[in-house]
Design goal:
Elements: E1 3-6, E2 9-12, E3 17-23, E4 31-38, E5 45-50, E6 57-59, E7 67-72, E8 77-82, E9 91-99, E10 111-112, E11 116-121
Parallel strand pairs: 2-11
Antiparallel strand pairs: 1-3, 3-8, 4-5, 4-9, 5-6, 7-8, 9-10, 9-11
């Protein structure tokens, strides 16, 4: 499956952004999807994950209550709604896919989008 992330940009603190990740292929609903981010000098970290059906979601503690992951399997797209953004959310955001279950470990994901930059100014 090929993934294409979009929606990043430069915003001020407390603003909102919605990232999208469009997937190719006809079996999108069979993949669990995750959003990861990587700031300069940092390791890639888990942000949020969602099951194939969309019924189960997972969040990093740092974004819980502010970010919402969702998916539309009819459109082969996964979203990350980001509210109350903070400067520490600044990073390149990646969508990723894998089979069966959501994990927080980036190296367990098989498919990756190209990344979209989110910059939050104070």
């Amino acid at each position: 499956v090929q993934l294409q992330a979009s929606g990043g940009g430069l915003v001020q603190a407390r603003a909102s952004l919605r990232l999208s990740c469009a997937a190719s292929g006809r079996t999108f609903s069979s993949y669990v999807m995750g959003w990861f981010r990587q700031a300069p000098g940092n390791e890639r970290e888990f942000v949020a994950g969602i099951s194939g059906s969309g019924r189960t979601t997972y969040y990093a503690d740092s974004v819980k209550g502010r970010f919402t992951i969702s998916r539309d399997n009819a459109k082969n797209t996964v979203y990350l709604e980001m509210n109350s953004l903070k400067p520490e959310d600044t990073a390149v955001y990646y969508c990723a896919g894998r089979n069966i279950i959501v994990t927080t470990r980036y190296y367990e994901y098989d498919y990756w989008g190209q990344g979209t930059l989110v910059t939050v100014s104070s």
